[in-house]
Amino acid sequence: MPHIAFEEIRVTKRQMVKSHLMKPDLKIQRKKLTLLVNILLGLWVGAILFLQLILYPPQPVVTIVNELGFTEPFYNLQGKIFPTFQTSDLNLEFALKFND
Amino acid sequence: MDTLSILLTAIAYSIACIGMGDMAMRIIDKKGKLAYSSTLVGFSTRFLLGQGLLANLWVFMALAGIFSPLLINGIIVLLIIGGIVLNYKNFPDVINQCRKIWHEIMNEAWGWKVIIFSTILVWLIWVPYWFPLETSGSRYYMAIAKTISAAEQLKVLPGYEDVASLGMQGEMQFAALMTLGSPESTQVFSWLTMTAGCVLLLSLGRLVGLNRRSQWLTLLMVFTSSAVIILSGSGKTDLYGVAFAFAAFYWALKFEEKDQLQSSVLVGLFSGMAVMAKLNYAVNFLPSLALILFWKLFQPSQKFTFKTHLLPLIIMGLGGLFIASQMPVKNQFLFADPMAAFNTEDISSQVWYGAETIRRVYLLLPFSLTIGAFWGQGGGVSTLMLAFLPLLFFLPKQNRWRENPLFVVSVAAIFGLVCWFIAYPSNFALRYFLACALLLALPVAKAATDYASIGNFNERLVQVPVIIFVVYTVLGYVSYPLETGSTLRQIATGEANCSNETMRCLITDQVNNELPLGVRVFTYTRHRYWLRPDLIQCASTTEELNNFASLNSSDLRWKYLVGRGFHTILVENRNTTIPDIIRADLLEIPEWLSITILQDNENIFYFQLSSKEDTSTNLIGCGQITPPSWDIFEKSIP
After folding, report:
1. In chain B, which among 224-283 make CB contacts under 8 A with chain A?
2. What's the rounded mean pLDDT across residues B354-377?
3. Can you say whether residue B376 is alpha, beta or left, with left for phi > 0 and alpha for psi between -120 and 50 degrees?
4. At what angle do helices A24-55 and B456-483 cross, to 10 degrees?
5. pTM for this structure?
6. How far is B165 from chain A, CA to nearest CA, in Å?
7. Mean per-residue pLDDT for B199-218?
8. Per-residue pLDDT for B630 more than 80?
9. Please, is A75 exposed, middle or buried when counting C-beta atoms within 10 Å of its C-beta (0-12, 13-18, 19+)?
10. Which residues of B464-488 are buried (b: 16+ CB within 10 A; e: fewer)?
11. Of A46, A85, A99, the CB nearest to B371
12. End-to-end CA distance of chain A
């Protein structure tokens, strides 16, 4: 049996995988997968920015929300999300001392 | 002082720091072995080194009672001359480097150009005097600096005595700038310090494989972090610790065999400065740095020798101890106890909230770090870091993680954070571990730019949220100082916004003008910085506040106040212990006492006491025993 270097095996393996992936039907699947990943990422980034905007709306956004008449639903939504990121069992004794 | 004078003072003092750093570098690196990544890195290193050493010099001068305007001005003028003479040849290099960066920006695609200019905009609008002095800034950091500057010596701050037991870095810069006659420039100087720290963070980024785009994104993530924005102009000193920590990280990673002694000295000095600026960094920054050093020094390919492995560590330790020596010496002098900083109430004994909140903080850790609003948290890191977090999966795979410096730096940052979270789970405040948290911007920024380079769609997926977030930040934070009172507003209009800064306005407009010199004011106000220097030095001490609160009848409390020489009471009307007591006591005024109410509203109690009985036997007074310092003294009974 001829001696095959480890590196050569790796290169051959990589070529095999590459040629397998380059098959037309797999190419389409890869494109779909990339699209799905991008959509998921877009949703994630959008959700984070939306969360930021709901929790800490800048003054101009508050003005727009008020003028459009969405004040109540906006603050309702904020009131539902905000407690998750706030302290619910503050050590009042310490807090008072700290504020002193 | 007008805006130009403020900027010029901060710049002049920065040149003095560079001059000091330059002189120190001539001792540390006599043969010029250290290779800086760029001229800007050289300037930033010398600037931070110089200011850290100056802080120590100021501490010892203040301890000796020679913190006089003449000496301070003289030293600063000499250092400015030194800084210019030693560095003027480097200025063309800085201009060339800036020009090169400018050309790079001009050659960028339009999407990246928008991001880069947005980053510059965010960096510039962050000029700190947009924000008013707040909380502990005006409560003690700026107030103790004002006391040192006015008394020309290091003194404890009545009401916050234990603060003087901690390390002093930013406070001493504030005191020196106040002695130069420009208290407002303290905030600009903090901005310059953080900028120098960021230069070293970005160069560290280059060392771990970040390209220019990733560096811009890192910078954007730092300056859009709400914790950084909140700390920027508030008069607090936390950002000094961050800048020194970045410098220590940079030089630890830059560590090479040919300049190991010089790098070791720098790592030691910078880590000492970081811990002196923020003592909490001993628990998170030091473990983080230790991990990087361990990786750098103990590579499997290197043979273990004393010279290559142990000697650098010993030098670093000595460098750190040299800087940290200010604390025990100062404490021995002030409190007759070198370990006084460790005798004050340790943060570990502070339980901020219960198990339920702690569980939520750590279960939602990435969210808590970015958008959390937990008690005492004081802002978070940039939301962009959370938004681009999943992109870490798209970073190119490495065959050997151990050989990847970005991986090591990221693990070191996480290790530092974990150390803090384990030691102090109920003290989730970004300012305590900000340097380690911001270090995590490096892998995320690299992941985002790598992902963006895959294709046009991916590029937009990164660029669009960045631009939206910049708009959000600008809208959020630019509108803030315009609505509330701020130094900028004060500079622009010549007056504070009194609808938002009631206490400050009362103090600056009324209290300081009405009260004679050396009057003792019973106060625990968070706005004591605005009081006249003599009033700050003569104010109620912690012991007096505690004794007052422990007395169990209103008559005893009124007698106590008069007996301690307090004829003026200035207390914020809040639902805390002392205001609650005063509110109740005002309903029970004894016959021997007459009270003149000057202000009594939802914000403030401000009134004067005068006893109808003879008070000449009062034992406590305040005067200039060793001018210009004001001291509380016991009167001798005739």
Report:
1. 226
2. 94
3. left
4. 0
5. 0.92
6. 18
7. 96
8. yes
9. middle
10. ebbebbbebbbebbbbbbeeebbbb
11. A85
12. 84
